[in-house]
């Protein structure tokens, strides 16, 4: 097997008693500032959580369908529920 010419970076293990989370002193707390004042651009970018709001969200409902209908749509593969929704939209337009 041919070795590539790229050298892998070797990482040293930290000492056994290494602690990167040091205890805060009273002076540390006194000097601390809110993140929104220190790095406002990052804090503002992180504000939104979850999916973005859509203008016309879908409504979850329970619907009982004949097994043959469900089987036929499931047989078409992934996205079968979306295809049922599209078929119902077409039916509504014809009404």
Sum this structure up briefly.
The protein is mainly alpha-helical. It has helices at about 25-30, 35-40, 40-45, 65-75, 80-95.
How would you characterize the overall build of this protein?
The protein is mainly alpha-helical and 95 residues long. It has a domain at 63-95. The protein has helices at residues 26-31, 35-38, 40-45, 67-74, 80-94. The model has no long low-confidence stretch (mean pLDDT 85).
Please report which band the strand proportion falls in: under 5%, 5-15%, 15-25%, 25-35%, 35-45% or over 45%.
under 5%
Structural class from helices and strands?
A: mainly alpha
Q: How many E-type strands?
A: 0
Helix content: 40-55%
Give the SSE string. Answer: HHHHH
- What's the total helix number? 5
Report the span from N to C terminus. 69 Å
List low-confidence stretches: none
Cα-based radius of gyration, to the nearest Å: 29 Å
Largest sheet, in brief, is: none
* Morphology: elongated
Mean pLDDT: 85
Write the layout of secondary structure elements.
Elements: H1 26-31, H2 35-38, H3 40-45, H4 67-74, H5 80-94
């Amino acid at each position: 097997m041919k070795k590539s010419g790229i050298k892998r970076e070797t990482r040293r293990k930290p000492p056994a008693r290494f602690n990167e989370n040091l205890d805060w002193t009273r002076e540390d707390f006194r000097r601390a500032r809110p993140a929104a004042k220190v790095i406002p651009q990052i804090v503002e970018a992180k504000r939104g959580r979850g999916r973005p709001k859509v203008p016309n969200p879908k409504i979850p409902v329970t619907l009982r369908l004949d097994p043959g209908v469900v089987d036929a749509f499931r047989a078409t593969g992934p996205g079968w529920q979306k295809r049922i929704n599209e078929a119902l939209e077409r039916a509504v337009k014809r009404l």
